[in-house]
Amino acid sequence: MTREADWIDFLRRRFPAGAGVHVGIGDDAAVLRASGGRDLVVTTDLLIEGQHFLRRAHPPRAIGWKALARSLSDCAAMGARPRWALVALAFPAATPANWVKEFFEGVGLLARRFGVSLAGGDLAVANQIVADVQVIGEVSRGRAVLRSGARPGDLIFVSGTLGLAGLGLACLRGKITSVEPVVKRALLVEFFPQPRLKLARALRRDVAPTAMIDISDGLSTDLNHICEASGVGARVFQASIPAVAVPSPLARRLRTTGLQLALNAGEDYELLFTIPKVKAKRLPRRLAGVVLAPIGEITRDRRVVLVDAAGRERRLPPRGWDPFRRS
Amino acid sequence: MTREADWIDFLRRRFPAGAGVHVGIGDDAAVLRASGGRDLVVTTDLLIEGQHFLRRAHPPRAIGWKALARSLSDCAAMGARPRWALVALAFPAATPANWVKEFFEGVGLLARRFGVSLAGGDLAVANQIVADVQVIGEVSRGRAVLRSGARPGDLIFVSGTLGLAGLGLACLRGKITSVEPVVKRALLVEFFPQPRLKLARALRRDVAPTAMIDISDGLSTDLNHICEASGVGARVFQASIPAVAVPSPLARRLRTTGLQLALNAGEDYELLFTIPKVKAKRLPRRLAGVVLAPIGEITRDRRVVLVDAAGRERRLPPRGWDPFRRS
């Protein structure tokens, strides 16, 4: 397709206006009708070739899925229900039309799963593929779950298995095409991460987390985010972290461990949240189909520490993903 | 600054949470409190180095300004009041911190002018500078002005002077540093275009345009957008188009004319709108400080034609900005 108008026609047919979309794709802006009396939750996330995905290794459908998943996961972390998405996509002029179509297939697959409508976007030419997805969601007034509400004595939980996406990316980078089940599972999470929207809403309903964040940068960084925003510290028990089990030969080849991946790789989009200790017994081991693990507690003193099996403590600095770190 | 957290601290200090921002920069998402009973108007616009601006020629403050201006102009074209912005910015790791600060100064200058709050965003590393700005605005329920409402017999108007930004860009590309007043004015519009928000609201109040669009791609393309969306055609009188007057020596050097720039260059962010003929006399020559010019009328047959001084008609195809055209 050689005209922007052709792409807009394609997208308009592919994504008919959904609920609450008064004017969808094709005007200067979208017109949305929000529910009355709720707060809006809005987020925007860049996904960039070479930084967040590898053009040669990631299928375009996975890239579209992931571009939207990042923003949906932010909505989950706020306890909000995502409703509308805007997708801005820039790509080199020589990109095959099918690549772009597959990208939007990926967006559409995930959007349909959670009842999110593509309301608009923008297309442009760039030297590399850059996607920027905005999601607008809704949450009951004043009920968004922030990073800043963790209190000393709260217990810290995480959902799912941490480090899977990091393992998947390491295998892609290392061109490892193992058929080991853990590698398959890791690639699935790296390609099609599941935003924990149902879990987040169940948590908000059942235990009202005091603070919540999605693990996009790695447990070490995202836990530090909660502690900084809440003005508290944390003690995390290494043995309690549900880190991916990486078979030794693979770990040696990749020069990493499941714990390192869990702490610092990110992109799992699991939830990290805190709840008052008295509510802990209300929390089942599995909620909305996802296993929940207590990994430690919030402390008054502001240090974030990891406690090993022998009871030794060490600082747990934010060593996860940071686009601006010079490593 | 070598950590994302430093940038977020900088932005949080620089852009304190404004009206309706319940949770601003720094959490997983922003939480906004919209006015009850209004529609939301949302838009996203990419601004890309080499495509929309030249790193060597455009000051970073102008790039920040322009990145926001594009989305504010979309709000104007809908007759909406912009309230919040999210700014996603990707830049090469070697970009000086001052460049980024100046970019956000430009965003802030324009945001303050129109009472828009920076509510959030994202930062990332890329090979070239890519900005994507989302704006969320509000408009009275069902009152957004669409592209699709033009009716046969309506008169077509444009605001301001067309082709100035195109002249400015041509001068930058040609490294022309003339001190002619028109070049100065052209560079000012290219660097700091004025979204016509006040004009749009006055128009909606005084004459209720049947259709409206901002001229971002050039009059030829944007008029065709209105005609396609409305299922109508248009007759435009060449002599009535308020095209920039380009002195002959400059026009020869740039191999263009004021008319060509007005029709096909875009980026002026003036408004193109239609009103029923009976309302035309209500429309002053100047509104909200901007001159308004009648340039033609909407026709039943779907052709878009330009009528020259001798009365000859020719088709006016969309020859304005299209990122995917292979020229």
Structural overview:
2 copies of one chain form a homodimer. With 327 residues, chain A is an alpha+beta fold. Chain A folds into 2 domains: 4-140, 60s Ribosomal Protein L30, Chain: A; 155-315, Alpha-Beta Complex (Phosphoribosyl-aminoimidazole Synthetase, Chain A, domain 2), CATH 3.90.650. Chain A has 9 helices and 14 strands. Chain A has helices spanning 4-14, 60-77, 97-113, 164-173, 181-191, 197-206, 219-230, 248-254, 258-264; strands at 21-23, 30-32, 38-48, 81-91, 117-125, 130-140, 155-159, 211-214, 233-237, 271-275, 286-287, 290-299, 304-307, 313-315. In chain A, strands 7, 8, 9, 10, 11, 12, 13 and 14 form an 8-stranded mixed sheet that branches. In chain A, strands 3-6-4-5 form a 4-stranded mixed sheet, with helices on one face. In chain A, helix 2 (60-77) packs parallel to helix 3 (97-113), helix 2 (60-77) packs parallel to helix 6 and helix 4 (164-173) crosses helix 5. The radius of gyration of chain A is 20 Å and the shape is globular. The mean pLDDT of chain A is 95. At the A-B interface, helix 1, strand 2, strand 3, helix 2 and strand 4 of A face helix 1, strand 2, strand 3, helix 2 and strand 4 of B.
